[in-house]
Amino acid sequence: MPTRRDFIRTAGLSSAALGGGTWAWGQPPSPLYQGTQLSIPEPRERGYYRPLDELSVICTPQAHRYECRDGQGRLYAEGAAQAEVQIELAGALGYHELYLLDRKGRELDRVSFKVDCETFLKDGGGRYADFFDILRETLFSSTYSSGKLVRYNGKYYRYYSSWFQDHVFAAEGLKYFLPDLKTGIELYADAQREDGLIWDNYKHPYPEVQSYWEYRFDYGGFTYRPEDPRSSAIFVRIPVENIGEHTFLEGLYYAWRATGDDAWMRQYLDHALKAVRFATSSPWYWNPDTQLLKRPFSIDRWDFQSDLDARITSKDFMGADLDRTRYGVMYGDNICLANGCQWLAEMLEVAGRTEEAEEMEALAAGLWTRLDALAWDGDFYRHWVPVENKQELDFGVDTNRQITLSNAMALLRGLPHDKAVRIIQTYRDLRDKLPTRTPGEWYLCYPPFERGWHVGKWEYMNGGVSPIVAGDLALG
Asked: Do both 108 and 244 map to the same domain?
């Protein structure tokens, strides 16, 4: 099942080749398949060869050596010319060129051939291939599935959702089908606030006068109106949420891994470090006593607090007040930041910035240690541990025993094996005690809140069953 990932393994480059290269997807640079002194068979069925295919080359006796170059013009195969030569295809997508050279290195002949790929799955009975097609069709059913072009301060970008977290999650699936994984990250890097904050969305149209979102969140610098009035939207940070910075780390890491573009990745390492330093110092998002990320009382990582908490502060249910909001440590925020710092350390190491890589590794280790001491109960992570402006509220449920979705997310974000085993067993135990009519154990929050939220019991985040959890459990 060749995919773009195969290119990373064989040549360090993949679908990034779609956007550049001397002859990546233009006209063939030399005759296709048949030359005067060498020939290769025309590919059957699809009109192109795939990466890792074996290419059979017929050479004339006058040839001494052969060279094969990829869609970026880079040499990836060479050797002594024989009557028939087998070459395993690798390198960047596009038109590849095969050269025949004499003993003095002079060119005798050359031909070109097209190398492309698509992600697919085959299995004996077709069951998993059908499921794969369903997943692909689901990805492409969104209005954003092929990307939406947006403008910010004179530059154009493409994203797969107007909310940054959703863009990153969608891109992690679409990277197997679409080439543009960079500009959605560049948008949030270019607009990063001076102190390092990363915005949550670029969604709401650029207004002539104050917008509703500016009215709601103009305190704390939680909105930004671009200088260019032709920009598509304004940037918004939801005060309740604490995901922007680690989302940037995850998005940058996966875009780099999918494209193999080290030079591009290096351009954004300072943005990533700046984001980490903001997240671990801002009074809105960092608790200095526990040395952990904090947020108002929300259902796991969602972007609204309880109605009871909103009444305490007289704020919008997405808002916050440093003096009155009940702040607590939500384990999912900290796990994602710790894992993001580990990813950032890997990128820094590749860039030769060893000292900063070690700093990020140490920060990640400290986050894990402090979080485990505060929130791990032996079977799963406690949902939310109060740390500031503490006040007991009655939600009709023991919040310390609620299992929420970030436990499943943690399975894919650096969780140690022993804890992963306990979390999976927790969901298995839950499955065994549920009624047979229950669609699955993949609850976003179980048991749900009885009261205190604008979301009803067993609905959406408050006890809904979701493939968000199912997918992470399956991968975990």
From this structure: no
Residue 139 lies in a domain: no
pLDDT value of residue 11: 39
Written as six digits, the tokens of 254 are: 């996966």
CA atoms within 13 A on the CB side of 78: 10
| Long-range contact set of residues 283-289: C-beta below 8 Å, sequence gap at least 24 | 283/322, 284/220, 284/239, 284/320, 284/322, 285/242, 287/327, 287/329, 287/387, 287/388, 289/387
Domain that holds residue 76: 32-115
- pLDDT confidence tier of residue 25, bands split at 50, 70 and 90: low
Q: Is 266 within the bounds of a domain?
A: yes
Amino acid at 356: E
Residue 388 lies inside a defined structural domain of this protein: no
pTM (2 d.p.):
0.85
> What does the alpha-carbon distance between residue 209 and residue 202 come to, in Å, rounded to a whole number?
17
How many whole angstroms separate alpha carbon 192 and alpha carbon 212? 22
Average pLDDT in the chain: 91
Residue 265 burial (CB count, 10 A): 22
Q: At what angle do helices 354-375 and 331-350 cross, to 10 degrees?
A: 160
The answer to whether 190 and 271 have CB atoms below 8 angstroms apart is no
The CATH number covering residue 59 comes to 2.60.40.1930
Q: What is the pLDDT of residues 83-98, one digit of tens each?
A: 889 999 999 899 999 9
Structural domain count of the chain: 2
What the block records as the tokens of 463 is 């006890």
Measured CA to CA, the distance from residue 208 to residue 201 in angstroms comes to 19
Domain-terminating residue out of 69, 99, 115: 115
Interval 380-431: pLDDT, tens: 999 999 999 999 999 999 999 999 999 999 999 999 999 999 999 999 999 9
The beta strands (E) that lie in 206-333 are given as 223-224, 233-236, 286-287, 292-293, 295-296, 327-330
Spatial separation of the C-alpha atoms in residues 84 and 321, rounded to whole Å = 74
Domain boundary among 77, 98, 115: 115
Tell me what pLDDT residue 127 has.
Answer: 96
Neighbours of 179 (CB within 10 A): 17
